Amino acid sequence: MIIGISGMIAAGKSSLSEKLHNYYKNSIMLHEFEEGDEVFNTFLKWLYEKQPNLTIGFQSYIIENHSTKFTEMTDKFLKDKKDPKNDHIFLDRFSLEHYIFAKLILSEKGQRYLDAYDALFERLISNNELPELAIYLDISFETFVKRIFERGRETEVNNFDSNYEYFKNLHNNYLKIFKEIACKYNLKYVIIDANNKTEKEVFDEAINIIEREVNAKYR
């Protein structure tokens, strides 16, 4: 089964994805980005520094990069003759979800930029790239701020104050737009309230969700 782990920045997606990948020994995991991805890290740094004229370029890179890696991964899954019932592909965020960031960022550029990105997005994203199940980790804005500073990524922390309104707007709209996208693409999802829960508690809840969905799908 292809399972996407979704949610706001610092919701705990990567940690949960890694734990699930380690738990399901024959699974494959696709990271949202690699730590050493110089292009992504540079774009992200420029975004937080509010450098001009990079928005569509950044969003297009994310989609194309993720889409290519996803195709390579699913091809390998089939080549290795893995069992879709017991062997899973975990996505640390997935292509469709990046539309949320693009919509909010490009809205500041005007409608024609949104229209241009919508056209590009519709062409690049196929239903084959969608997870069969998305697990959405929901956190409050207060939890988001706490976790941003706890994990201490230099680009995020150093530019937090200048991007406060962006983060606030993103949090206010993230789940709303996620639900709109899920409805449009008929995406099945389950929400976990990750506030005031340990990583183990979130992990255990995710395992129960996955086992329930797998049993329902393949019974």
CATH topology: Rossmann fold
**Which runs of at least 5 residues are low in confidence (pLDDT < 50)?**
none
Instruction: Give the count of helical stretches.
Output: 9
Order of secondary-structure elements: EHEHHEHHEHHHEH
End-to-end gap: 14 Å
Strand segment tally: 5
Structural class: alpha/beta
User: Which percent band covers the strand fraction?
Assistant: 5-15%
Radius of gyration: 17 Å
Look at the structure and give the mean pLDDT: 86
Trace the largest sheet across and list its strands: 2-3-1-4-5
CATH hierarchy class name: Alpha Beta
| Helix-residue proportion | 55-70%
Largest sheet: 5 strands, parallel
Number of domains: 1
Task: Tell me which CATH architecture applies here.
Answer: 3-Layer(aba) Sandwich
* The named CATH superfamily: P-loop containing nucleotide triphosphate hydrolases
Identify the overall geometry.
globular
